[in-house]
Specification:
The protein is α/β, with parallel strands linked by helices and 227 residues long. It contains eight helices and nine strands. The strands form two sheets. It has a seven-stranded mixed β-sheet, sandwiched between helices. The chain has a two-stranded antiparallel sheet with strand order 5-6. α5 (123-133) packs parallel to α7. The longest helix has 22 residues, at 67-88.
């Protein structure tokens, strides 16, 4: 059965501390191309990763930077990463990167790439808007964690992984405020919109591509389901 998938690809997978992770991108391309050959279509929304954080950190060392300017640095970082993905998927991707997710793009290509749009909105939020515009009910969120947790596991040794949770309870964990460079399993503004749209969001460790492959083939996965 042919399906359309929306994937919010964490920038930490594309550009971690060590630089662009071309080995991951090569394996990711192989998996996605295999699904495209089976008839599936994809929207890929890419985060800013360390590119975003490095630019914000550099600006902050020189003068006090507004949240809006930090957001614009992040937006352009996501667009740069999206162009990288468009380049490696050139044979199947639409040549234009989506900047406005509320504008329906007419294309017969099997992949459309998107980056950031406006200050105050993360790429997770862009993914929810694309789900609304293209009537897709599930968003796959790939990051560098196996699960979402009931509290920050880096600060709390008793943090427990979550396998399934409702939006109301999840939003109590992530809060309601967006900050530039925020590192959350699925950001607060996107979570509010996803709840309004009754979306399902799947949180998986994107570096474990066998898990994503299993989901494509069986609908089962290791990670967190928010609905």
């Amino acid at each position: 059965m042919k399906k359309t998938y929306i994937i919010s690809l964490g920038g930490s997978l594309v550009v971690p501390d060590c630089g662009i992770n071309w080995k991951f991108l090569k394996k990711f391309r192989q998996l996605i191309m295999d699904r495209i050959r089976k008839g599936d279509s994809f929207f890929l929304i890419v985060g800013g990763g360390m590119t975003c954080r490095n630019y914000i950190s550099a600006a902050d060392r020189i003068l006090e930077v507004s949240d809006e300017d930090k957001d614009w640095l992040g937006i352009h970082a996501t667009r740069l990463n999206a162009h990288l993905l468009r380049t490696i998927f050139r044979d199947v991707a639409h040549p234009e990167i989506i900047k406005n997710p509320t504008f329906r793009m007419a294309t017969d290509r099997k992949m459309i790439l998107a980056g950031g749009w406006k200050p105050g909105w993360s790429t997770d939020y862009i993914a929810t808007l694309l789900a609304q515009e293209y009537e897709v009910k599930t968003v796959i969120n790939l990051s560098n964690i196996d699960y979402a947790y009931d509290k920050d596991p880096k600060k709390n040794k008793d943090a427990r992984p979550i396998k399934e949770i409702g939006w109301q309870d999840f939003r109590k964990i992530v809060g309601n405020r967006w900050n530039p460079g925020l590192n959350a399993p699925f950001d607060p503004i996107a979570s509010k919109k996803a709840q309004e749209l009754s979306l399902e969001v799947l949180i998986m460790n994107g570096s474990k591509l066998d898990n994503l492959k299993k989901y494509f083939e069986t609908g089962k996965f290791r990670g967190t389901l928010i609905k």
